[in-house]
Amino acid sequence: xxxxxxxxxHHHGEVVEVVEVQEFTSAYRWQHWVRALTIVILTITxxxxxxxxxxxxxxxxxxxxxxxxxxxxxxxxxxxxxxxVVIKTYLFLFGKETTYRTEVVSLKDIINPKIWIQxxxxxMFLSKHPHLKGIYNPLQFMAYFGMYMLFFxxxxxxIVLHVHVYxxxxxxxxxxxxxxxxxxxxxxxxxxxxxxxxxxxLIIIIVVHIYMAIFNAVFGKNGSMDxxxxxxxxxxxx
Length: 238
What we know:
three-stranded antiparallel β-sheet, 10 helices
C-alpha cells in the first residue's frame, strides 16, 4: 500500500510524482536474510566437509572433534534452511499479504512476449523498463524459480546424506524416503555429486542475483535494493 510520503522529481524537464510504497513485508525480509545466512554458513562448512583444509594439532586427549563440530554446524543450518524454504514456499502459495500476492501475479508477465523483449532491452540499454503487473520481471522470476529448485534439490540430497550417518531419531524416520531418492539418483556417490553441483550452481546464481540487484538499484533509481532492508521503494505515480 502506498504511504503518504510523496516526492516530485524532474525528468527531462518534466515534473514526475513518485510515491513510497511497501515492496516487502518484515516477514519476507527476515526469511530472506536468514536464508542468505544459511547459504553462507552451509557453503563454508560444506567446503570443509568435502575437503578438510584445517587439521587440529594432535594430542593424546579425545578432544579434537573439529570435523564433527563443523558437520554439526552444517546440519543445524541445513535444517534451518529447510525451515525457511518451506515457510517461504507456503507463503508464496497461500500468503495473503500484498507482497506474496504480487509474486504470484508476476506469472502473468512470464507469458507476455512483449514484457520479455522490453526487459531484455532494458538490460541492454535499448529500451525503458516495462511496467510490470507483479513484483518480479520475467527474468527475475525464472531466476528465483531456478534458485528454489536448487534449494529443494540440495535439501533432498542433504537428507539422503544425513540418513546414512544418523540412523536414529529423525534420520531413522527419514531413512526409507532417503533410500528411495538414493536409488532414484543412481547411488550415494551420485547423490554427493548432485549435492556439490547444485551448490556451485546456486553460488553462480547468487553472484548474478547480487549483480542484477545492484544494476537495478543504480539504473532504476527507485530504491529497489533498499527495499530488502527497509521494505519500501519509490514508484512513479500512474
